[in-house]
Amino acid sequence: MGKNYKEDCIFCKIIKGEIPSKTVYEDDDFKAILDISPAAIGHVIILPKNHAADIYEISDEDAGKILVVAKKIATAIKSYLGCDGVNILQNNGEAAGQTVFHLHVHVIPRYNDDDVNIGWNHKQDVDFDKVCEDLQQALQS
Ligand code: AMP
Ligand code: ZN
Predict the structure, then answer these.
(1) Are the C-beta atoms of 62 and 15 separated by less than 8 Å?
(2) How far is CA 64 from CA 29, 37, 71, 124, 136, in A?
(3) Ligand 1 atom closest to Cα of residue 98
(4) Is the CB of 21 under 6 A from ligand 1?
(5) Mind listing the pLDDT tens digit for each residue in 38-95?
(6) 113: CA distance to ligand 1 center in Å?
(7) Alpha helix ranges (H) inside the chain
(8) Threshold 0.85, pTM exceeds
(9) Residue of 10, 37, 33 whose CA lies nearest to 21
């Protein structure tokens, strides 16, 4: 099946095999590779073969399928590495830490008391009623 590649996209080049990668899994729609700068041993990123910059661009079909691939890889990572947990992470926009603008899902093995930091401070005094109403409206329009 023909795929939708973007010129000068590093992950499109990896998908086409023009840049080498350590591929752990591949099917018609996705390539999963070892992250070159991993948070933990066995850190995998899943790349859709159709170029989409971020979650706003990805097709509903690829969006649905990618979590199934993440499940497959997380299950393998847990059983073969014997890790205590797994984070599934996906960044959109520089503000959210995205550095490569071809959507990808991180699968990160976690261990009790490891040194991986994925966290946030919790907001106080939130007007949950207003936030909920605003978001409900945004989702209807
Ligand atoms: P993000 O910050 O969510 O955009 O993640 C981009 C990820 O891609 C980082 O974890 C990088 O280490 C990883 N990365 C960048 N270039 C390569 C590459 N050539 N092969 C494998 N992983 C890469
Ligand atoms: Zn791309």
Answers:
(1) no
(2) 12, 27, 12, 34, 22
(3) 4
(4) yes
(5) 999 999 999 999 999 999 999 999 999 999 999 999 999 999 999 999 999 999 999 9
(6) 24
(7) 10-16, 60-81, 128-140
(8) yes
(9) 33
